[in-house]
Design goal:
The protein has about 140 residues and is an all-beta fold. Helices cover about 0% and strands about 55% of the residues. Strands 1, 2, 3, 4, 5, 6, 7, 8, 9, 10, 11 and 12 form a 12-stranded mixed β-sheet that branches.
Length: about 140
């Protein structure tokens, strides 16, 4: 990362919001896992205590590598306005755009995506993706 300066160093507090602008990226590490917050993203660390880490993604994209010490006992959840993504241990990307669409791409493992409109949950396996469109959002 030639010459790049960190946006911030230190510990995040529970409930703390983060925002990247321009070409900024933020790498957050905890235990054996990492979350990369991509440019033009706004998120909040709703809960940082294990075994249940929760992130609220307002807009933008996060790239996640979640590898718990005790698979099945530790969980990561990413909430967008249209879906809840529940993870036990995997690598994936969650993106929420201004049109109200949540896109989940899985590169390793399986995640469970729960649309908040009451439709059936979806299991997304490695190499697959799914989209959830917020209720009332225009579909194109």
């Amino acid at each position: 990362m030639g010459g790049e300066q960190p946006v911030r160093r230190g510990v995040f507090g529970e409930g703390e919001a983060i925002e990247t602008r321009g070409e900024q990226r933020m790498l957050v590490r905890f235990a054996q896992s990492r979350i990369e917050v991509t440019p033009e993203t706004r998120a909040r660390f709703a809960r940082l205590r294990t075994p249940d880490v929760r992130i609220a993604l307002e807009i933008g994209r996060v790239e996640v590598a979640f590898h718990p010490r005790h698979r099945g006992a530790e969980h990561l959840t990413i909430d967008t306005p249209s879906a809840r993504v529940e993870v036990v241990g995997t690598e994936f990307t969650v993106e929420y755009d201004a049109a109200g669409t949540t896109t989940v791409r899985v590169s390793e493992g399986v995640v469970r995506v729960v649309p908040l409109d009451g439709s059936a949950p979806r299991l997304v396996q490695a190499g697959k993706r799914t989209r959830v469109i917020a209720a009332g959002a225009a579909q194109s």
